[in-house]
């Protein structure tokens, strides 16, 4: 059966990439396909949110460059929490430069992303060299590391459509050791195949942002779909939720955040259970 019809557990047992295996195992263990996007600007809010949602998530998605008081201790503490609460870390860096530059952006600078992020993502726009550049860093580490390509975006008018998405999938198929899946809005198995090609052993994870239970979008082009649409109907594996859980006000209410995380975890898991057959 196609990957999205199989259990996360079965897929974990077969996957060739260690980061993908770790994520799928974590999802099964915690009964969670929820990633929380922690888009806040202070480390206090950042950790208040992570500590509130940790029991309910398989993945924490970060934008470390928006933290105004970032320091190296932040990523040390994040890694510690990741081990303590069993979740993976995804830095939503959206690399987009030539191979040599992205290798440096991934490994070096203030953030040294490759040293702590299990998963990162990249725009396919520069072509396959962006994958080989990032893989030259990630695959050398004796750690669980994987890359997601941005095959589709959730925003109104996104240019990630048609042949762009097809080429993104082709690029990923050429680098299945390091590319573990896509940021996308639906499954990609049927994309770019002639009908006779055989890629039955391919298992790309689909992580979908733009998920909300109470809102259809924001004032800046974001569009939301429900966990049922995203997971049951479109076959995505992980729901990425930001403001639906962390809120949009200034003050973080940890109890509310916890309650919303639990709500999205349940909705995401029920949507998954409705779609699997094995
Ligand atoms: N994000 C999207 N859409 C995309 C991609 C990334 O929303 O197509 I690629 C990011 C942006 C933000 C998070 O960090 O996912 C969604 O946050 P909200 O749930 O608050 O909209």
From TrEMBL:
| Pathway participation | Pyrimidine metabolism; UMP biosynthesis via de novo pathway; UMP from orotate: step 2/2
Q: Which GO terms describe its molecular function?
A: orotate phosphoribosyltransferase activity; orotidine-5'-phosphate decarboxylase activity
Enzyme Commission (EC) number: 4.1.1.23
Instruction: Check the record and name the CDD domains matching this protein.
Output: OMP_decarboxylase_like
Keywords, comma-separated and alphabetical:
Decarboxylase, Lyase, Pyrimidine biosynthesis
Family note: Belongs to the OMP decarboxylase family.
Q: What is this protein called?
A: Orotidine 5'-phosphate decarboxylase
